[in-house]
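Researcher: Structure for this, please.
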Amino acid sequence: MRILTDEQRAQLKEAVRQNPLPPDYSKRGSPGEKNPRAKLTLGEVWEIRSDLAGGAGVKATARKFGVSPPTVRSIRDRKTWAHIE
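Model: Predicted structure, C-alpha cell format:
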C-alpha cells in the first residue's frame, strides 16, 4: 500500500474534481449494448440462450456468433448479460 503525502492527496482530489466520471458509469460499467466493449447485441444474446435451450452446443454457438466458448457459457450461466431475462 502506498502512502500519499498531503500534497499528492490534494492533487488527486483536484484531478477527480476537474474530470469526474460520466454520470452513468458504475463500478460494473454499463450493461449490455451500452457498454462500448460489448461484442454482442441484445438480440444475439437472446438467440444464444434460445440455441442453447434448444440443445445446441457451446462450441458451435460460439463459432456461430464469433465469440469464445467461455463467453457463451457466461451468458448461459447468467454471469454476463444477467439483466436480460
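Researcher: Any notable elements?
Model: The chain has a mean pLDDT of 83. Residues 6-27+36-76 form one domain.
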